[in-house]
Known about the structure:
3-stranded antiparallel beta sheet
Amino acid sequence: MRNNSTLSVIIFTRDINYNPKRLTIYARITVDGRRAEISLKRYTSESMWDFSKGRVIGTTAKTRMLNSYLDEVYSQILDAHKELLGEDKVITAQAIKARYLGLDDQHKTLKELVTYHNTNMDSVLKYGTMKNYYSTERYLHKFIRDKFKTTDVYLRQLNYRFIADFEQYLRNYQPETPRRICANNGAMKHLSRLMKMINLAVRLEWLEKDPFKNFKLNFQKHNRSYLSERELALIENTTFKGAGYEKVRNIFLFSCYTGLSYIDVKELMTNQMVLGNDENYWLFTKRAKTNEIVKIPLLPKARAIIEKYSDEMAHHPGGKLLPVLSNQKTNSYLKVITKACNIHKNITFHAARHTFATTVTLSNGVPIETVSKLLGHTKLTTTQIYARVLEKKIGEDMQNLMDVFAAKEKLNGNSTLPLREQRASV
C-alpha cells in the first residue's frame, strides 16, 4: 500500500535539571506533524552540543563514541520506519517509537504471552485447568533461566529446537524436593498447553511462524485402573470401623453407580434429585469440567447411599446431597480401603468413572452411546478412553454372532459340518 506520510527524525537536547552542564539527549520522531520523543539516556553540556547538527562537538574518544551511538539511533529509527512500511502497517510516530524500543507486537516475549493467556483465561477455564497452566508457566521460567541464563525470551526466538529442548528439560528435570518427575504423558501435557498458548500468539499476530508446525505430541496409551465386578463386590461387602472410611467407601460406590466425578459428586445439591416421568429418581446436574448437562437415572444402590445420609444432610446448611470429604483425604482413605479388600491396583476416586463405564454399564449390555451421555461426554471418542471391552463381553458377542450364523444355516438347510468333512462325504 502506498504511504504518503512525512517523516522527520532529529536528535536534540533538553535541560530538565536546570543545569546547562547536564543536558539530556533525546530523539524526536515526527510523522505528519505528530511527535513522539525518546530519551536516549545520554548527557552532554550546552557548550559541547552542536544544535544545528544534533551531535556533540569534539574529536576525543568519548565524543566519537557518543556521536557513533547517536548515528546508530538515527539509523535504527529509520529502519523501524522501513520495517513498518514493509509490513503494510499504519505509520505513526508512536508506532515507530514502539518498534524501535521493542514494545510493539513484533517484540512480544514469551513471558508476556503466558501472562496474557493466564490473565484472560482465568475467568474462562476451570480452577483445576488453570492450576495446570500455572504449573507449565513455572517450568517455562525454570527452563529459560537454566538454558538461556535470562528471565525471558522474545517470541521470535521460539523455534523447533526450543520446543525439543524444553521437552528434554521436562523429562530430565530433577525437583529440589522429592516428588514425582514428568513421565512421557506429563511432559506432553505441558507441551500441549504451551502449544495452545503459541496458537494464541499466532492468532494475535504476535508471531508469524508456529514453532510447533513440525512437532508432534506423542501421548502413550495407558490402561487406567477400574474395578472388576468381583472387586466392586468386595468393597461393597467389606465393613470399616472408622466413620471416615465408611463415608469414603460409600461416596466412592455412589460414583461407581452414577459415573460422576469427584467434584460433580461434591457439588450435588438435594434439589438436583428429581422424580422423573418413569417414576424413578434422576440426577439433573452439570459437569463442572465441561458445563455439559447430565441426566442420570439413579440405580437402586446409588439411591440407597443417598437415603443412608439423608438425615445427616438434612441438617447441612449448604443443602448438599452427600457428605464428601476433601479430595486428598478421600484418595488417601481409598488406598487403605482397597488394601483391606486385597485389591492390588492403584485406585483413585477417578477410577469410579472407569468402573461405571466398564463394569457397571458396558459389560452389562448398555450401548456406548448411552454411556457417553451418562458420562457427560460431547464426543464418543472420549468415552472410548474410559470404556474397555472385556473378554467376557467379547465372548458373549461372538457367541451371539455364532448363534446368528447357526440359525441362518438351519433356515437354509445347509450342513453345519466342517468343510473337510463335507468333502469327505462327497
